[in-house]
Amino acid sequence: MRALALVQAKDDLRGLKILVSVLGVAIVLGTTVIIGTIISRLYAKPAAPSIAAPAAQVAPAAPPAGGGPRIAGMAAVGGKLAVWLADGQGGLIEIIDPATGQITARIRPDAKSGTPPGAP
Q1: Where are the domains of the chain?
Q2: Are 106 and 93 in contact (CB under 8 A)?
């Protein structure tokens, strides 16, 4: 009876021995991968710097109309720049596209009220 119990005990440990062996191999492989990754990163050549895309060519903005108006104010309006020029005749509002530098609109406010035509 005792001999039968010893044989069963050896068979029960067989699965445990296989599990320990597989986990030991996994630990060795994992450690090898980690050490290899660290070494490859230490000795890797730095990547070539990326080539920056050339900046878009911006056309120079046209000088304000008239002889010597001064900038009285600016505001960003939906991706455009509104510039209020005071010239002694009621002023002028120029709408400029910052991407191209082109004047897209000119608005001359009503000289009496100081508001653009059609404004509430």
Answers
A1: 1-46, 58-115
A2: yes
